[in-house]
């Protein structure tokens, strides 16, 4: 069974929902919500199964704790993003160097974009 077929076989109520509490979304920063959304979208697109995702996130949290992360909850989405980046590199032809280059290009574009306007990469940085 392909990853896409496995993803389609997962019941909708088993998929993650945006974490909320009685006051609303639990994301502290917009990038955390974006990382969550990217993960769900890549899973829906069949890049990885949810068990693969859970294993990658768990391994990343274990590595961080072994390196001294006190696991107070404030670094959770940093681990989330690192696990997502690892899966993307492992499951696509995107190299870690190319991923870093894209992150840096995106950061430069974000810095020069007025607040509330779309962030656009110049042609020479889109590749």
UniProtKB/TrEMBL annotation:
Residues in Nitrile hydratase beta subunit-like N-terminal domain copies: 17-107
Pfam families per the UniProt record, alphabetical: NHase_beta_N
UniProt-annotated stretches for the region Disordered: 107-127
InterPro entries: CN_hydtase_beta-like_N, CN_hydtase_beta_C, Elect_transpt_acc-like_dom_sf, Nitrile_Hydratase_acc_put
Name of the protein this chain belongs to: Nitrile hydratase accessory protein
